[in-house]
Amino acid sequence: MLVAGATGFIGARLSRALVDGGCEVRCMVRDRSRARLLSLAGCELRESDVGDPASLARVGDGIEVAYYLIHAMAGGRGFERREREGAANFAAMARRAGISRVVYLGGLGDPGVSKHLRSRHQTAMVLAANGPPLTYFRAAMVVGAGSESYRTLRHLAARLPVMVAPAWLKTATQPIGIDDTIEYLRRAPEVADSEGREVQIGGPDILSYGAMLDTMAHVLGRRPALKIPVPLLSPRLSALWLGLLTPVDTRVARPLVEGLRTATIVTDPCGARPFGISPQPFEATLRQALAEERTGAR
What we know:
10 helices, two-stranded parallel ribbon
């Protein structure tokens, strides 16, 4: 197995899960010094960068299935172009190397609403058009200790007795826990029906972002914040607000906030059915993330 984006929140967990399941795992990393834990877990490390086609030479040799978990939003402006080019370079490498399947995790929701969602979808289209058959997973918020989404929820719920309430707090979403997400990704090569198709995944709960904040407050043992409606708060101001109150990078916050205006729910569950997975409820995923955060186990 090849995992591109192996030092990220999802990539690192997936790499360890694949190793624990008996797979030989090769991790693509830009900086070997940041991947010491992956090496200790038994992963082979290859330094490469999807933005540099020459660095991808031979990285896919002998690989059957490749996971593409790279996103470039943290790099700021121009991330859409960088994501398209990186996906095209990776797909070309995978095709030349004879890789039989690529697995990618994108986002739920209308791609036309924000640069973030549009870029995630375009990445999938580039991978599908230029590389081996693609399994295109789509998910809303992935809840787990260390994820930007979880950290943002936790900080808002823990710090604010009163908060402004942008209109996007009413948007419906369908979060899924990190363990369930990893299990979908891990099983993809075993599920023949997932080859060459979109697979929408989500937890059992559909709720608003405001309700998610209230649930987080409940899990933390706090009273939910009093919310003062400010329906005209722009994405830019919302991003600045989040940047002041939470650890989220403002370069990441604005495209994320733009995407919060559209519902991110599963509209076609057919692709997920062959996996036979019953995801955990939202509150259970929050409690697990909080426990992992407190013990340092991830």
